[in-house]
Amino acid sequence: TVHARQRLDERGIRESLVQKTVRKPQQVIGQGAHRIFQARFVDSKRKKEYLVRVFAEIRRDAIVIRSVYRTSKIHKYWRPE
User: Is 29 buried (19+), middle (13-18) or exposed (0-12) by CB count in 10 A?
Assistant: First the structure.
């Protein structure tokens, strides 16, 4: 969506990172059409671990990305298995 594209630009998140998170998430939260795909990654420049959260709507023919952000507050959002 336009909103998701704006969030990518504002937050300096690469589209390839979003695609990787959706294709091979480390966690998926939610059921039905609305889900949050999550993956941890290390920012090599800052040498810090972050969590990327991709909010998506699952449709029959596509996955529509609604919003994206990254956070260093991994413990707040990560669900133990």
Answer: middle
pTM of the complete model beyond 0.85? yes
Q: Which two tokens stand for residue 19?
A: 């695609």
Phi/psi of residue 38, nearest 5 degrees: -130, 145
E strands along the chain, which residues? 27-29, 34-43, 48-58, 63-71
Q: What is the mean pLDDT of residues 59-75?
A: 94
> 23 — phi, psi (to 5°)?
-70, -40
Asked if 28 and 36 touch (Cβ cutoff 8 Å), the reply is yes
| Owner of token pair 């939610």 | 30
* Dihedral of the alpha carbons of 54, 66, 45, 29, in degrees to the nearest 10: -10
Question: How big is the chain, counted in residues?
Answer: 81
